[in-house]
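Lab notebook, bench 4. We co-purified these components, and the gel suggests they stay together. Before we commit to crystallization screens, I want a quick structural picture of the whole thing.
Request: model the full complex, all chains together.
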Amino acid sequence: MSEEIPTADDPEQPGRSGSEREAATEPGNPLGVDRPHETAEDYTLTELLAVTAAHEIADHETAFIGVGMSLMSGVLAKYTHAPNCQLVTESGYIGSVPPGVVQSISDSVLGVDALVATDQCEIFTDNQRGAFDVGIIGAGQIDSRGNTNSTVVIGDQSYDRPKVRLPGSGGSNDIMTSCGRTVVMMRQKRRAFTTDVDYTTAPGHLEYPGHREELGFVGNGPCAVITDMAVFGFDDDGEMLLESTHPDVSVDDVHDEVQWELRVADDVGTTREPTRAEVAMLRTIDPADVVLRGTDYVYEVGFEEWSETVLEHWRRLQPIQDE
Amino acid sequence: MTHPITGTDHRDGTDDDPSGREKVTDLETAIADSVHDGASVAFGGMGGRDPEAAAREIVRQEKSGLTVLDDARTTLLDIMVGAGCVDEYVGSWVGTSLISQGHNIRNAVENDVPHHLQMRDVSNFGSSLMFLAGAMDVPFVPTRSMLGTDIPEHNDALEIIDDPFGSGDKLTLVPAERPDVAIIHVQRCDPLGNAQIHGNVVNDHLKARAAEHTVITCEEIVSTDEIRESPELTRIPFYTVDAVAEVPFGCHPWHCYGRYYADLPFYREYGLRSQNRDDFLEWVEEWIVPHEDYLEKIGEDRLETLERMEREINDPAEVRR
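Here is the predicted assembly.
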């Protein structure tokens, strides 16, 4: 595992130049990676996705995040460009500084240096008041107005006996209703980018401009959709707008994976690639590759090696947390 | 109709001397006495502090026809569904966290294996509020969540109304749920049922209050004097609790904050072995055993490693003050 991580130079190592020392203490490069701001030589699409979502969280913001990719992005933001952001999770933790990837929503790493350990009802009460700036959610289907489905793919069947039963809302409905703005992360597939979602789990810009305001929502709804191919925003009508495609992906490629007549920004660009520092940090916070690669690493190496790897990575992040 | 807490037994546990009023029992008896076929059950925790040992005991005792009233629920629901214990789930999210989908849950909903699982969806806040309404003993609590979506379309228990006070706002009414039994795993509890939770609470304080009958499983039974040293940690008071069972490592393979870290390889293996019906039944054969035997099979070394991992991040001396 550790070989895959770009050199995190030992600060005690003799012969390091002064400029490298500065790099090691500069915010955004806590691991002290060599040439931190250069584009990473190798990164996966999943890593690009995580880094792009992380950039949706600005410094000093309060970010409501779930499990998996969204928590990865939140933790990455906290350790890189947004050290003063505060992470909120629906199980009851606020202001955590987790030393690694979070396996579940009550993962005890969320208790590390947390400001608050409370209950779910309180978190969502505050959410309904509009206390949180940005939320990150996932979804199985999405339409052109950012309405998402994470409950059932019905197909020609029924809600009770659907074609595919998905996990359900979790907090995604509540987040999309009331968070200041919401970022949706998902895989770009034609069947998922649909003209009509089978079931609306979380409210995007609903059916027409002003629909959210009519219902009295405090949150502004979806602001971005980040996929493995592209980044989308929303225009003033509440329609999805292609803003950038990832390297080696064309606008036509994206059109092919969207069922509706997609609106494309005049100045559509290429998504910024992850830096060496960002990729190194991602690989440090996900030592067992649970989120990033979804490999069977954990299963293959067995319990002992897994526990040692996790402990080793926690210890690597400890001095950064203490700062 | 109102429901006073624990009916005529509500004076139990007001005495510091627990003699004659002991709620302390063992896991097997607690489940046998409280979970009847056809009961509605709520479980505590949420991908951390989940009462996994209690759920395995429910499977071992071959309970059936259960309704699980819950928020987000992971492995324990998937195991119970695969084993045929559950007919209906009311809650916000099912799966086995980021490790895998809930294969048994999907198989039951989509293919009726081993039999059909009826789903009734709410959002996460919706699940908190159904227990809050139950705990308050009022018929419903309103929220702005779920408006404009299909959640109320497919859940007949939810109602959308115009604010009767004339603000013009629309509101979703979430009806009270009063589970027959709530089963909650905590770090410490005294024999009277004062349950202390370290770390996050999720909806456990509400579930205990909403339920007709509450079973606490705990890592450690401590004296009432010890509870008095840190009363702010007591989130579930004695008068809502009916039974207390000491069940060390009672939420393995999940996390128990301040005690042990999650056993990721164990539930990763569950995720793989639950993909296929025959493999799952073999898993049940292997792991649905009395809790003491389960811990012996996991092995002392492995449990100690999980404790060491948790100590590394959450120092128990600090956690327990």
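Residues 260 and 307 of chain B are 4 Å apart (CA to CA). Worth comparing against the SEC data before the next meeting. The two ends of chain B are 43 Å apart (CA to CA).
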